[in-house]
Design goal:
Elements (H helix, E strand, L loop, with lengths): L7 H5 L5 H4 L16 H16 L15 E6 L3 H12 L5 E4 L37 H9 L1 H6 L5 H14 L4 E2 L2 E9 L2 E8 L2 E12 L13 H4 L6 E3 L13 E5 L3 H12 L4 E5 L34 H13 L6 H8 L4 E4 L4 E6 L5 E5 L2 E5 L1 E4 L23 H4 L9 H4 L24 E3 L5 H4 L12 H15 L3 H9 L18
Helix pairs in contact: 3-5, 4-15, 9-11
Amino acid sequence: MSRLHLNRRAFFLGGAGATALLTIPARARSADTPAADPSRLLNEQTQRALRWAGKAPADWVRPRAGVDHNVVIVGGGQSGLSIAYALRRKGIGRIALIDKSEPGNAGIWRNIARMNQLRTPKWLPGPEQGNPDLGFRAWYETLQGAPAYDALERIPRTAWADYLSWFEKITDANVSYRTRLVDIEPQADVLRLHLESGGVPRTETTRKLVLANGFAGAGGANVPGLVGALPARLWSHTDVPFDFETLAGKVVAVVGAGASAFDAAATALEHRAAQVHMYSRRSYIDYPVPGAAGPAAPDRGHANVIELACELPDEVRWRNRRLFENRVASVPLDSIRRAVAFKNFHIHLNSELSDVAANGAGKVVARISGHTRRFDHVVAATGYRVDLAAQPELARFHGSLALWKDRFHPPAGEGDAALEKYPYLGAGFQFLPRAEAGAEFLRNIHCFNLAASLSLGTLVGDIPSCPYHPRLAAAIARDLFVDDVDVAANERFIRTPLIAPDVAPYQDAVSPA
């Protein structure tokens, strides 16, 4: 057996050549095929990686009387898990991670995500914080073999969900599920959090709060008024879990033509919908052409330093986000193919619904391009909005938040009422107070959800924003460290005379001058 083709199974089972394997660089060892017991091998491999990484440093943050936590993270999805892990690796203890969902259902991957594959490249860094043994590739190859990973076009959605569940377990995240943040009550430099766990209210205090609650945590789903006015049974939004079995034999309208729209359309067709009609205001569907490199915006950030995008000038960040919001959304080609494989799927370009209403027969009636259409159900695939005034937990102080409209005045003709509502965040993703508000406590609330996308220069909460997690952890560590400096204690320490220890250990070696 060639050294370069030794697999992990041979090594861990003590097979021939295991000694020779010690001469091969660690990164050259790969699981060419799954082990006979891949779960056991994965556990052994992971425990070794954690042992080599060393224990997380002891908590160096000075405890404060009456404060329960150093940091509370809202959201147990990929961002929350990664941020918690990064903070612990920096020696910050007393971290609480909460999520309103049922165990195993944090994030979107098992409830509202409907794609077969993730929309991002499989090689993007995830929550592993630079430790490749804790990354998706190591996890997948150990269980399935290197050829299986190499054969992936992109990561299967359910595989990513399984990986995150594993990551949660091996990093001891200890997510408190069924726990919802109801209200944030500032008390000097401490935040009193009003929580609800399993319907039971309670309060806890923290010095720092991280809002890692995803796209929907910045204002909720964007629902067109005409659709939202329909009876609830006749429409749904792609942000909400939905039983697509109920659409069997029915005529469905999908409003929107982005990736989530195609995924919802395909899911309805796979559940035997009679017809699915997709309506787009645009004149075409954009998708990445295989092998073709599209034009890159200058100074927009680069894959290996995406976390530096937030350092761009305000004018550049504004224009980049404005372009993102106004351009035709690109749809993965496999999502398009999945839907168009059905003969009863129809795309209507340059179309917009109007005069939408429910009739007496329980149907949705709408005018489209001068024609009357009838549907049994409407799916709004219309994305999310950013409006922190709509988040009840921020009700006490959202009026004191600095927004982009308070800090930046775009050039003539480049105004955007929607972007004006985004919070203007500091370098540590912290809220900043409006000049006249004096609400300095806002700096202890760090926003890592969709609302941060304009300030950070990238779509926050999605997988590509994972490289920002260390930056956020460093910002929190910096604040906790600096805030705990005790100048008086430092002065006492410096002024305390040194006391010479017993000379016994070296006395016999002392020679006269």
